[in-house]
Amino acid sequence: MKIESIKLSNFKAFRQIEMRNIPAFCIVVGANGSGKSTLFKLFAFLKDAFTSNIQTALSRLGGGRGFQEVRSRGAAGNIEIELKFRDNDESPLITYFLSIGEENGTPLIEREVLKYRRGSRGQPWQFLDFSRGQGRAVTNELDKVQDESQLQREEQRLKSPDILAVKGLAQFQRFPAVVALGNLIENWHVSDFHISMARPEQPAGYAEQLSTEGENLALVTEFLYKRHRQVFDLICTKLANRVPGVSNVEAKTSEEGRVLLKFKDGAFEDPFLSKFVSDGTIKMLAYLVLLHDPKPHSLLCVEEPENQLYPKLLWELAEEFRDYARRGGQVFVSTHSPDFLNAARVDEVFWLVKKDGYTMVRRASEVKQVADYMAAGDQMGYLWREGFFEGADPQ
What we know:
Elements: E1 2-11, E2 14-19, E3 25-30, H1 36-51, H2 54-61, H3 67-70, E4 79-86, E5 93-103, E6 106-117, E7 125-131, E8 134-138, E9 153-157, H4 165-169, H5 176-186, E10 188-191, H6 195-198, E11 202-203, H7 217-227, H8 229-242, E12 246-253, E13 258-265, E14 272-273, H9 279-291, E15 299-303, H10 314-326, E16 330-335, H11 338-341, E17 349-355, E18 358-363, H12 368-375, H13 380-385
Parallel strand pairs: 3-16, 3-17, 10-15, 15-16
Antiparallel strand pairs: 1-2, 1-4, 4-5, 5-6, 6-7, 7-8, 8-9, 11-13, 12-13, 13-14, 17-18
Helix pairs in contact: 1-2, 7-8, 8-9
C-alpha cells in the first residue's frame, strides 16, 4: 500500500500541515530543527502504538513526558493524525483517522476511524469507528460487498481506551479491512542505522531482515548467502563496483560460534574483518542489504543516507531507493545533501520550513520557477544550493 496523503494537527512541530499526492519515492529537505526527524518519528510512533498502546508510544516519543510533550506547544486540542493510502491506482482510497486526547493526566483514544471510498463520488464507507475503547467494525470481505447496506458491523469493546482498535481487531480474521491496515503498519521500517552497532562480532543466530539500528547486519548477510544466493551475489557485485578495492563479502561463523563479516580486497589473499573496513563500505553494504530484501517493507524511512558516503555514490543510491519504490515499497528519505538531491525529480521533493515556531510543508513542483528550471534540464540540488527553497537552505 502507498500513502497518498498525511494530515497532522498538534503533533509536535506540526501544528497544522498536510502533504498531498505523496509519490512512491519521497524526499524531504529542510534546515536543522525544521521537523524532518519529527515526520519520520510519526511512522515509528504509529508502529509503537500498534504494537503496544498509546501511552507507551507517547512516552517513548515524548522522552517520558508523554502527551504534553508530543502535543504542539501552545496547543489546546487533541493530537490528530490522518493517513490516506491505497494498494494501487485502481484500489479504493482508505482513510485512517486517529484523535488522541488526555483525561486526568492519562492519554486515551478519543476517536479512531477507518473508512474506504470505493469510487470518486459518494460518501466513504466506514469500516471501523471507535471512541474511548468502544465502537463498531465491519466483518465482511471487501470484494464481496457491492453496497453499503450489505456491510455487517459488530459491536466491540476494548479492554482499555488507550489501545488502538486496529491493534485489537487485527488479531481476528473476521475483520479483514482492519487486518489489512495492521499488516501495513507492522511492515513499516524506520531505519536508524548506526555503523558502530554493525561492526562488532555478533553471536551466532538467525535474522532475515535488517534491524532498525543494523546490529544484525552480519546475520542477515549470512541468511542471504545461504537462502538467497542470487540476491547475495548481486549485493556483492554492486558493492564491488561502488567501493574501490572490495571484491567480495562473506559471512562466516567462527570456532566460538560468532558471525564474522569479512571483506576481500583484490590486492590481498586473505579477507579482512569488518572492523578494519571504512564506515562508507559498511553503510553501503547495509543499504544494499536493506534495499534488496526478498520481503521488502511496505514503507521504508531513511534519514540522511549521505552520511559517511562519497558524494559520487549518492546518485546511484537515490536510484536504488527509487527502484525499491517501483517494486512496491514506498520510500521516504530526508537529506542535507545537494548531491543526493541532484538525483531527484521535481515531483519527489518536499521541503520543511519553520514559521512562527511551527513547521510548514512546501512542495517543489508547486513552485513555478523551480518546476520551470527542472523542465529545462536543471538539477534539484543546484537549485536548492542557489536558494530557491525559501527557508530551507542546505547546511
